[in-house]
Amino acid sequence: MLNYTPKEVVEREALKINPCKTCQPAGALYAALGVNRCLPHSHGSQGCVAFHRMFLTRHFKEPVMGSSSSFTEGSSVFGGGSNLKTAAKNIFDLYDPRIIAVHTTCLSETIGDDLGSIITEMDIPEGKYVVHCNTPSYKGSHVTGFTNMVSGFVNYLSRKTGTSNGKLCVFPGWGNPGDYREYKKLMKAMKVPFSMLPDTSGVLDGAMTGKYEMYPDGGTTIEEIEGLGDCISSLALGIQTSEPSAVALKKKCGVDYNAIPLPMGIENTDKFIMTLQQFSKEDVPFEVEEERGQLVDMMVDIHPYTYGKKVAIYGDPDTVLGITQFCLELGMIPKYVITGTPGVQFKAAAEAMMEKFGIEDSVIKAEADLFYLHQLMKNEPVDIMIGGTHGKHIARAEGIPLVRMGFPVIDRYIHSYMPLVGYKGGMRMAELIVNAIMDYQDSHCEEKDVEMVM
Amino acid sequence: MKPAVVKRSDSGILEDRKKSIVYKVDGCSGNGIKCDSDSVSGAVSQRACVYCGARVVLNPITDAFHIVHGPIGCASYTWDIRGSLTSGDDLFRTSFSTDLRETDVIFGGEKKLTAAIEEVMEKYSPKIVFVYATCIVGVIGDDVEAVCRTMSEKYNAHIIPVKSPGFSGNKSTGYKMACNAIMSLIRNYKTDKKIKAINILGDFNLAGEIWIIKNYFNKIGIKVLSTFTGDSSYESLIRAPEACLNVVQCAGSSTYLAKQMEEEFGIPYLKVSFFGTEDTTSSLIRIAEALGDMEARAKAIEFTTRMEREAEEVIKAYRSKLQGKKAAIYVGGGFKAISLIRQFNLLGMKTVVVGTQTGSKDDYEIIENLADEDTVILDDANPAELETFMKEKGADILVGGVKERPLAYKLGIAFCDHNHERKHPLSGYEGVVNFVHEINKSINNPVWKYLGK
To answer: In terms of CA atoms, which chain B residue is nearest residue A137?
Structure first.
C-alpha cells in the first residue's frame, strides 16, 4: 500500500490527501455527549449524523446518539427551519432528553439558516432546553467544532447571579473519558471544588450492566453549566481547544481565566497541579507527589531506550503538543510534528518547546495531511510514530512501530478508558512508547542479539 | 398478512414511524410496510445519505481516484472504511478531497476542483477519476459536470461526476447515482461482440467474498468478465458490455445498474444471493440454467451437493449449541435480511426481529413470507425501536453493522457484524461456516455470564 507516495514533496494547492482531521460537526457532537441527558442534534442532511455516530462509535466502542434534521431538496431551497422545529418536537416526545444541543453543518450554514431565531420561535417544553452553535464544516476542524459547542453551552446557559459558588470552572478540552476521570481525581485530591464542561466520563466509558441507557448518568449537568458564571475563575486546558470557551465565559459572566497546555508529561502536569494549588491554597497531597515520583522513576528506568529516538507525532493540536512535550522529556527527538487542524499558535508553541530542549531541524506544520507526513518520513526516516489509527498504513509501509494515542483510534480497544493526562497518563504514555520500542527490537533484531533481560 | 399497528410497545415509537413497523400476523398484506422513504426529522436514524450510498458502491474500484469535492468530513468518514479487498491496485484506499474552505464557499469551488484534478492528472495520469459532489457543491453554484467535461477533454481520460448531495434523497438514491456514474463509463465501450460470460453485480469483495464466488464459477466452468465493483479495475469494467448475463447480488444497490445494462446492452439479469447454502446452491444452478449451459448445470449440481454436504457437517456440529436461540437482524439491504432468515432457519434458530435500512416493498413481502409468526418487521429502525423489540422478543444475538454492535453489547446481547466491519467472508459455503463460527463465538461466549443482570 501507499506505493503512490513519492519521495519528492511538491506543493499541493488544491488536493488534500489522507486527512489528519475531520469536520466541525463531529467534534460538536462529541462535546454535547459530555452534557447530562443531552441529545446532540445535527442540522443538516441525514448522512452527517450517521457518519459522526459511526466515527465516534468506532473510537469509543460505545453507542453514540445523535438526531438529524434530515434535510431534503425542499429544505435546501427554503431553509431548514421547519425541519428543526419538527425535529425538536419529535425528539422531546420520543427521546425525552433534558436538552437538545444543535450544531449546524456545511449545508445549513451555506443556505444561511439563522438558528438563533429558529430556536427563539420554538415551543420548548417547560424545564427543557435547546441550545445551538455554528459549526461550518469548511472552517477549522472537528476540534474547532468541539470548542464551538462548549462555548455554545456557555453562551446559552451560564449566568452570573452575583453570589460566588467558590468553584473552579474547568474546560478540559478534547480528551477521552479516561482523561476526564483523571482530572476529577486530581482535583479532588487537590481539594479543588470544580465544575467541568464537558465530561464524557460515565457516558462513553460506562460499565456493563446489561441495560442500555440512552442517557447514562455521566455528563455535566445543566445546573452546573448555569453555575459556571458564578465560578471564582476558570481554567482552560489545551490552549487552542479550550481558551475560546474560557473567553466566552469571561465575556458573558466576567469570570477570569487561566489557559495552560494539556497536562501531559511532567512539566505540563506540574503546571496543572500548581494552578490547582494556587486555587485551593492546600498542600499537594502525598498521593499526588508519589505519582509524580513514580513517573520520574519510570522515566529513569527507560531512558536508555527512549533517548535519541526520532518520532513523528500527528493528530489534534493540543494533544500533539502534549505528546511532543513528553517525548522531549524522554529524550526523544520529535522530528515531525503535524496537525490537520489550522491555527497559528500550534507552530509557535511547538517551536518554543524544541528550542527549550535544543532540538533543531524539526518540521512543524498545522493544516497538513498524512500524505505530506509520509513524504517527510521517506526523506528522513523516524524510529516510531505516535498518533491515531490513520497512520497505520504509513507505519507499515516504513516498517516502524505506531503507538496509538489521540483521536481517532479505531483499530484498538480499551484506550478510551485510560488517561494520557496527569502523572498517571504519563506512566501510560511511557509504557506504550517503551514497549513499542522494545517489542520492535525483540521482533526485528538478529537472532544472536535477542536478549532475555532488557 | 395485515400490518398491525404496534400496541404492546407503544412507548418509544413515533406516530409517523408506526407505518414502518409491522408484526407478522396471519392473513394477507394490504398496504404493506412503509419503506424506501426519507427519515423523519428528529429521528435517531441509522440511515446514511446519498453521498454515502454512492461512495460505498464506487469505492471498491481499485485503480480509480475518488476525489470528494466538499468540506473534509465526507472524505474523512469514508477513508478506507469498507473492508473491500483488492488483488491489484490499492489506490482506492487513499483519501482525496478538495477540503473546501470558507473562501471556496464564498467564491465557488470550481477553481479548486480544477486544480485538484490537474494535480492528480499530472502526477499520476489515471484512466478514471470519480468526482463526488457533496451537499454544498450545488448550493454554492459549482458546475461539477462542466469541470469534469473540460478536464476529461483536456486529459483524454474518464473524469466522471457523481451527483451525490446528501439531502437529495437517501442512501438508495446514492446507489442510483453511482450506477449512473458507472454507466457513463462503460457506455463508451458498448459492443455487438458477445462472449459467453457473466458479470457479477453488487459484490464489494468485503473480506474477499468475491474471490470465493469467482472460484465457484471457475469450478463449474462459467467465465466471469467484470465485477461491480469489488476488486474491479478500469480495464475489467469496460469489458462488461460483452457479457451475456448479469448476476445481481446486492439487489438494493445494483438492480438499477442491471436494468440499465439490460436496456442499453441487451444483457439480461438474474437476482441471486450467495449468503447461506440454500441460496448459494440455487443461485449457481439458476445461473447455469440462465446461460443455457447444461454442462455447467451438471457441474454445479455435483459441486453444490458436495459443498452443501461439507457445510452441513459443520452446521450439524453447531446446531445443538444454537438450536432455539433467537436472532434479531438489522442490515442494509432486503436481500441480505432474507438470506439471513434462511440461514437462521437452517441452524434451528428463530428470527424474532428483522429490519433493513433500504429494503424495498418486494423485499419486505418475501421477508413477511419467510418470517415466523409474530416476528417484528421494521424499516429504517432507530436504536430505541431496536432496543424495545429485541428486549420484548428476548433476542440472543443481533446481526447488524457498526452502530448496532455497542447497542447489542450494552443489552448483553451477542453480535455478528454483517456489514463493512465483517471480519471473515460470509458468502458461499465457506461463508456459512464462518458465519456459524461467528454466531457461536459470540452467543456461547463465557463473557455473558458476568453481566450484572
So the answer is: B71
Backbone φ and ψ for B318, nearest 5 degrees, come out as -95, -15
Strands B96-97 and A16-17: antiparallel
- Residues of chain A short of pLDDT 70, as ranges, are 1-4
Distance separating alpha carbons of residues A235 and A245, to the nearest angstrom = 10
Report d(CA B194, CA B186) in Å as an integer. Answer: 15
Do A138 and B100 lie within an 8 Å CB cutoff? yes
Reference B439, options B451, B423, B420; nearest CA is B423
What CATH number was assigned to the domain covering residues B15-34+323-422? Answer: 3.40.50.1980
- State the pLDDT at residue B381: 78
Chain A contacts in chain B segment 363-402 (CB below 8 A):
383-384, 387, 402
Same-domain status, A147 and A68: yes
Option in A16, A65, A75 nearest B99 (CB): A16
Lowest mean pLDDT: which of A215-219, A419-423, B81-85, B124-128? B81-85
Q: Residue B129, Cβ neighbours under 10 Å: how many?
A: 24
Give the number of residues written for chain A.
454
Range B197-301 classified under CATH 3.40.50.1980: yes
ipTM surpasses cut 0.90: yes
Between vectors from CA A405 to CA A401 and to CA A410, what angle results, nearest 5°? Answer: 90
* Last residue within a domain, chosen from A253, A280, A307: A280
Q: Distances from the Cα of A358 to the Cαs of A319, A326, A333, A365, in angstroms?
A: 21, 15, 10, 19
| Chain B: closest CA distance from residue A212 (Å) | 5
Residue B91 DSSP label: G
Buried b (16+ CB within 10 A) or exposed e, B241-260: bbbbbbbbbbbbbbbbbbeb
Region(s) of chain B under CATH 3.40.50.1980:
15-34+323-422, 50-188, 197-301
Closest CA of chain B from A116, distance in Å:
18
Residue that is last in its domain, among A96, A126, A157 = A157
Q: What Rg, from alpha-carbon coordinates, does chain B have?
A: 23
Pair (A143, A247) in one structural domain: no
Put simply, the answer to whether B93 touches A208 (Cβ < 8 Å) is no
**Residues A136 and A200 sit within 8 Å (Cβ to Cβ):** no
Helices A286-306 and A265-280 sit at what angle, rounded to 10 degrees?
A: 170
The domain total for chain A is: 3
* Alpha helices (H) in B334-448, listed in sequence order: 334-346, 361-370, 383-393, 404-410, 428-443
Query: Domain for residue A450, yes or no?
Result: no
- Model confidence band, residue B41 (pLDDT cutoffs 50, 70, 90): confident
Distance CA A108, CA A75 (A): 9
- Please state whether the peptide bond connecting residue B280 to the residue before it is cis, i.e. omega within 30 degrees of 0: no
Q: What mean pLDDT comes out for the span B396-416?
A: 90
Q: Do A45 and B79 touch (CB under 8 A)?
A: no
Asked if A153 and A241 sit in the same domain, the reply is: no
Alpha-carbon distance values, B309 to A319, A376, B287, B434 (Å): 56, 55, 21, 16
Contact B29/B364 with Cβ under 8 angstroms? no
Q: Which three cell numbers stand for residue A10?
A: 511538491
Range of the domain at A105: 24-157
Q: Cβ contact (<8 Å) for B39 and A70?
A: yes
Q: Structure pTM?
A: 0.93
Residue from the list B93, B115, B406 with its beta carbon closest to the beta carbon of A13: B115
Residue to substitute from B15, B56, B65, B76, interface A, most A β-carbons within 10 A: B76
Please check whether residues A298 and A427 belong to one and the same domain.
Answer: yes
What whole-number distance in Å separates Cα of residue B93 and Cα of residue B80? Answer: 5
Q: Are residues A126 and A230 in the same domain?
A: no
